[in-house]
Amino acid sequence: MLTFKPVAQRDMSRLRRYYKDCDYQLCEYSALVKLMWRGHLHPQYAEAAGCLIVKNCIDGKYCFDYPVPGPDGDEDAALCAIEEHCMEQGIALELSVVPREKAGKLLMRYPHFHLDNPRSWRDYLYEANDLRDFPGRHYSGQRNHVNKFRKLYPEARFRALGKDDLPLIERFWQDYTAVFEKTSKSAKNELALAKTMPRLTGASWLDVGGMEYEGRLISLAMAERCGETLVRLREDRAISLDDLCEDLQNIEKTIFLVGDGAELCYTTLLERLPRLTLLPEHLRQQRASGAALAAWEKIGRGERGDAGSLTPNYLRLSQAERARLEKTKTE
Questions:
Q1: Which pTM was predicted?
Q2: Using only C-alpha atoms, what is the Rg of the chain?
Q3: How far is C-alpha 221 from the chain's CA centre?
Q4: Contacts from 119-123 at CB under 8 Å and sequence distance 24+?
Q5: What is each CA distance from 204 to 13, 168, 187, 224, in whole angstroms?
Q6: Best-predicted range by mean pLDDT (102-111, 192-201, 207-216)
Q7: Fewest C-beta in 10 Å: which of 37, 148, 206, 268?
Q8: C-alpha 52 chain-centroid distance
């Protein structure tokens, strides 16, 4: 028998036992989302078969998240527990925001159930690289906004934020509220909810950062770490080791080095940057198999690509080209 309790801030560490290794890559599977949106989702949680089971109540209708297993979790047993709970309570069994890789399993388990795939929900799914680079015509508007911002505020810099920055964050909310133009009730409610989250700044499982300009924040971002997805911290560029060291000083997390210069960076900077980690050679060096694995992941998501569109990204000219140019200058 499942015993549910409402999600509260005191439950964050308990929920994080499951979400910290969750690789569903869906925002609903997040302790922070459950806390921020509890007024809308009304989430309750229980634990069974080594899994986290969340029951939401949206507009008076119950729906369950797909079970989130712990290290020894049994998803099938957790689904059985949900089924028994629904029969005991006389409520319909509905699983919402199901990870794509679990959909086939559920269709085999429940052959007479209806699978709904709302088109509007898919509008919120983006490739991480697209949001980083804004490639092509589709993202031209966003790219223009970024270029205009960089031209107007060349000195603005993004940096990590901690507990000591809470006064700066509070000042940001005052500035942002003063220029907030949306007037709908839902927009104002979302703003109010967002304001409550920075009080968690400093938690080990949160990444908080912002764009700073002339001593004031002009943007703020907060993210919860779920699963083992690696995050690119810096763009590809050719800079000196001293500049790299200065750039990485304020990063308070493990830094994985990749590329043919990784070993040199590691041996030179480790004393000044103890968070540096040198990955095994097969993970840090470029290989054709890496492109094949990336393509395989796209195929698994139902996407297609064109091998002819793959192009090298040179940060600087090759040694042979540099030597040729130098020779040309002296002739």
A1: 0.64
A2: 24
A3: 11
A4: none
A5: 11, 20, 29, 9
A6: 207-216
A7: 148
A8: 21
